């Protein structure tokens, strides 16, 4: 029910077309890169998905995370602007349902934009590399990207839920994103920062390391969810 209400509320914000347009923009990155600089990549000795992801994923994932952050801040801004949070706190309803409803909506939006980007990546493989057996590798790469993006969704929503002012939550999230871009991608410990995990690429990650990242993503989801529940309980106790 909470997810359905979030979908109805987001119809009035323009968030759905914004996500879709952002996904199209990110999907256009590898297409335009190959259209203008294909000679740089066609001679490389590596699987097509690895070549394309290494060349384009940093920009694509940056666009994805900025979309998620902006979406999370906007979703909570509408609640604070209309004093919906205060009204929920006076009711026996659980405020955590609001958080998880918004999370489910953002999860769905992430799946949509990654599907659009996967289609763009598959087009590049078929058109420029003539590799018709690479669809499974695209599916695996973007499934991995989806899992590693989920902690960033939870983290963005946690920051947005803690700040009444839209610009404060947006500023904190943007600083965290740009901090993540400065962290070395190959350093496992630093890459566990939830805004840094979406920059990981499955194609050039050893299987054992990829499994560790997936386990870490699930663990971070549980930790952030537990932290949000504790935060909401404390805030409700002192307000």
Description:
- The protein is an all-alpha fold and 239 residues long.
- The chain has one domain (2-238).
- Helix content is 78%, strand content 0%.
- It has 9 helices and no strands.
- The protein has helices at residues 2-10, 15-37, 48-81, 84-89, 96-129, 135-162, 166-182, 188-191, 207-238.
- It is elongated, with a radius of gyration of 19 Å.
- 37% of the residues are buried.
Compact overview of the structure:
This protein has 239 residues and is mainly alpha-helical.
Number of E strands: 0
**What is the succession of H and E elements?**
HHHHHHHHH
Helix content: over 70%
The whole-number mean of residue pLDDT values reads 87
Strand content: under 5%
Terminal Cα span:
26 Å
Calculate Rg over CA atoms.
Answer: 19 Å
Low-confidence stretches: none
Number of helices: 9
* Largest β-sheet summary: none
SS-based structural class?
mainly alpha
Q: List the domain count as a whole number.
A: 1
**Overall body shape:** elongated
Protein name: ABC transporter permease
Pfam families: ABC2_membrane_4 (PF12730)
Transmembrane segments: 57-77, 104-129, 141-160, 167-193, 213-232
Keywords: Membrane, Transmembrane, Transmembrane helix
């Amino acid at each position: 029910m909470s997810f359905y209400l979030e979908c109805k509320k987001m119809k009035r914000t323009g968030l759905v077309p914004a996500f879709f347009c952002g996904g199209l923009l990110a999907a256009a990155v590898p297409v335009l890169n190959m259209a203008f600089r294909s000679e740089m990549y066609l001679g490389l000795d590596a699987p097509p998905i690895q070549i394309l992801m290494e060349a384009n994923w940093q920009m694509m994932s940056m666009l994805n995370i900025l979309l998620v952050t902006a979406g999370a801040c906007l979703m909570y801004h509408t609640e604070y602007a209309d004093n919906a949070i205060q009204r929920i706190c006076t009711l026996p309803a659980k405020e955590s349902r609001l958080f998880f409803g918004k999370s489910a909506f953002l999860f769905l939006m992430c799946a949509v934009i990654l599907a659009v980007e996967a289609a763009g990546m598959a087009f590049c493989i078929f058109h420029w590399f003539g590799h018709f057996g690479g669809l499974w590798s695209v599916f695996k790469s973007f499934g991995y990207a989806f899992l590693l993006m989920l902690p960033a969704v939870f983290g963005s929503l946690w920051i947005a839920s803690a700040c009444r002012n839209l610009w404060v939550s947006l500023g904190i999230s943007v600083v965290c994103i740009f901090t993540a871009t400065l962290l070395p991608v190959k350093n496992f410990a630093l890459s566990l920062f939830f805004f840094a995990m979406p920059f990981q690429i499955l194609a050039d990650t050893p299987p054992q390391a990829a499994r560790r990242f997936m386990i870490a993503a699930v663990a971070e989801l549980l930790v952030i969810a537990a932290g949000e529940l504790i935060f909401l309980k404390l805030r409700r106790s002192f307000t």
